[in-house]
Design a protein that fits this description.
Blueprint: H1 2-18, H2 20-36, E1 51-54, H3 56-61, H4 67-77, H5 81-92, H6 114-118, H7 128-131, H8 134-140, H9 158-171, H10 178-185, H11 189-202, E2 203-208, E3 232-234, E4 237-239, E5 249-251, E6 254-257, E7 263-265, E8 270-278, E9 283-289, E10 295-301, E11 303-304, E12 311-312, E13 317-320, E14 331-337, E15 344-345, H12 348-351
Antiparallel strand pairs: 1-2, 3-6, 4-5, 6-14, 7-13, 8-9, 8-12, 9-10, 10-14, 11-13, 14-15
Bound molecules: zinc ion.
Length: about 350
């Protein structure tokens, strides 16, 4: 809340600083683009950042060296890469706006306040040594990302900054709720229109999620196995066994609640290696093998929608939620393993939990 208010104040400040002339000019630009450029929806090529192509204007205006970075960030957070380019354009004109410090203290390529970057729990004006520290960002729940893995989340580093922008947009509604997501970045309708204007000018075609099931929450490398909103009823680790009542049972997965109609979704691309009723307690159970060396397991389902040998994409439906096998109620038991039923690991980091 606090950061949103602050962000708004800052952006209003910027807006006034630029003057109304700039706004009028931008409106004209957008209008021109709508008239001229925004008609063709061909070439849905693309290798990352979801399925969206670049327009002729985008080819001309977006600096080539940034495109792979936008694409990588877009792919990771399921955001159109041309939207990230639009933010970069609006915030600092692709990193060319002076020293990239606003009068209100927003910094770097995408003009984050240090407080938003780090998380507002720390308090006002965190020093660089603090807001650049990924451990401190994790502690205070900010949006800064150390995408180039150099140990520093640096708002002036294009990769860190672009990933942080995509992270922020993703956590604010993402492509499924684009108006809200942009509004969250800066609470002003003129700002939303401006970013949307560039996004449309730079894009050809419509965005479709990275894989067919995109849009589920979760910012790990895997998507959630159930649609949003996600409710977890039991985490990974020691707990009291819900069936026997004995303490110290080790729960080798995460339980998600839902109804018998809830579709169960593949968390990432892979090949089905198990799909049958399991007598060991998992009931109707699917296991998918992934190229990263891990296996995902989906248990207690009411129905099975895939068969062994089938390749599935992120978000493919593998079955419906149920309560088959050793289960006290309708839920999904989801596990990540290093083998088929052996060597379980904590799924939380895979799901970004
Ligand atoms: Zn379970």
């Amino acid at each position: 809340m606090n950061d949103i208010v602050k962000k708004r104040l800052i952006k209003w400040g910027l807006g006034l600083g630029l003057g109304n002339i700039a706004l009028v000019l931008f409106s004209f630009l957008i209008l021109l683009a709508l008239l001229g450029n925004f008609v063709d929806g061909k070439n849905k090529n693309d290798s990352g950042g979801g399925d969206i192509g670049i327009s002729e204007l985008g080819e001309k205006e977006i600096p080539k060296e940034f495109i792979p970075v936008y694409k990588e960030a877009g792919k990771k957070y399921d955001i159109a890469w041309t939207l990230i380019a639009a933010f970069h354009k609006v915030e600092t004109n692709f990193g060319t706006a002076g020293n990239m410090v606003s009068s209100a203290g927003a910094i770097g390529h995408f003009q984050f306040l240090p407080e938003t970057w780090l998380g507002w729990g720390y308090g006002k004006a965190p020093p660089k040594s603090v807001y650049e520290d990924p451990a401190m960002i994790a502690r205070y729940g900010g949006y800064g990302v150390d995408a180039d893995n150099d140990g520093k989340a640096d708002p002036y580093n294009i990769k860190d900054a672009a990933f942080s922008c995509a992270n922020y947009v993703s956590k604010s509604g993402g492509m499924a709720d684009l108006q809200s997501a942009i509004f969250a970045y800066n609470h002003a309708q003129w700002y939303v229109d401006k970013v949307m204007g560039y996004y449309k000018m730079y894009s050809s075609g419509d965005y479709t999620p990275v894989e067919n099931g995109g849009g589920n929450s979760g910012n790990g490398k895997y998507k959630m196995p159930v649609p949003s909103p996600v409710t977890i009823t039991s985490g990974y680790g020691s707990r009291v066994d819900p069936i026997t009542g004995t303490a110290g049972e080790f729960h080798k997965g995460i339980d998600f609640s839902g109804s018998i109609a809830t579709p169960i979704l593949a968390v990432t691309n892979g090949t089905v290696v198990y799909s049958q009723f399991n007598n060991g307690g998992f009931g109707n159970c699917v296991i998918i093998q992934h190229s990263d060396g891990y296996y995902s397991l989906y248990g207690h389902m009411s129905s099975l929608n895939v068969s062994v040998g089938q390749s599935v994409k992120t978000g493919s439906k593998v079955g419906n939620m149920g309560t088959t096998g050793s289960s006290t109620g309708v839920h999904l038991h989801f596990g990540v393993y290093k083998g088929i039923f052996v060597n379980p690991v904590d799924p939380s980091p895979f799901l970004g939990l």
